[in-house]
Design a protein that fits this description.
single chain, alpha/beta, Endonuclease, Chain A, seven-stranded mixed beta sheet, 7 helices, 7 strands, globular, DUF6879 family protein, DUF6879
Length: about 190
């Protein structure tokens, strides 16, 4: 699926998510998010504005996670973090911390925790929605989103979800990770 079709299908599938919820794995260390005002500020070298724009999303994120709970599911996010932390990832970790504070469940894992999954190459970026649907999110070589591939083979969805759950269990809560690894970093140069 490309661009708009992916977003339309994902949006429909999201609100039909049942147990055990939405599980997301992010592996790449750099993305481009030109649709995000905060990312654009970061990219232009305005770190304070990027952080201000993150914080300006707090009420909206709280509403989103409240709606998710009302729909009967929760969201779980695993973020692989390599060192040194890339400028993009430093920007994103601020957002993931905010998401964690607003109702998402976010954990960080080290690259060595996913090595045994990566015998054939880096893990893809994936999202499972309940046990019925999974998307592999597709990016170009620069990390710009191109769309997603939708899978409905329940065995494959469940297998992938179980791997993400294992990583989540082994991961570190975003708040603790952030305080130790990110809070003291100098502002990054634009991504």
């Amino acid at each position: 699926m490309v661009g708009d079709i992916y977003h339309e299908e994902f949006g429909k599938d999201l609100w039909r998510t049942g147990a055990p919820g939405l599980w997301k794995l992010e592996r790449r260390q750099t993305f481009q998010e030109p649709y995000s005002e905060s990312w654009t500020a970061f990219r232009n070298g305005d770190w304070e504005e990027a952080l201000r724009l993150h914080e300006a999303r707090r009420a909206s994120l709280q509403d989103t996670y409240r709606k998710i709970v009302e729909h009967g599911f929760s969201t779980w996010w695993v973020r692989v973090v390599e060192k040194p932390i890339t400028p993009y990832l430093q920007w994103e970790l601020h957002l993931l911390r905010l998401r964690n504070q607003c109702g998402d469940h976010v954990r960080a894992v080290r690259p060595e925790q996913v090595e045994w999954f990566e015998r054939d190459g880096p893990l893809p970026e994936v999202v499972t929605l309940g046990t019925d649907v999974m998307y592999e999110i597709v990016y170009d070589e620069n990390g710009l989103p191109q769309g997603g591939v939708r899978f409905t083979d329940q065995a494959r969805v469940v297998r992938t979800q179980e791997r993400i759950q294992e990583l989540f269990t082994a991961g570190e809560d975003m708040e603790t990770f952030f305080e130790r690894e990110v809070a003291g970093l100098a502002p990054p140069s634009g991504g």
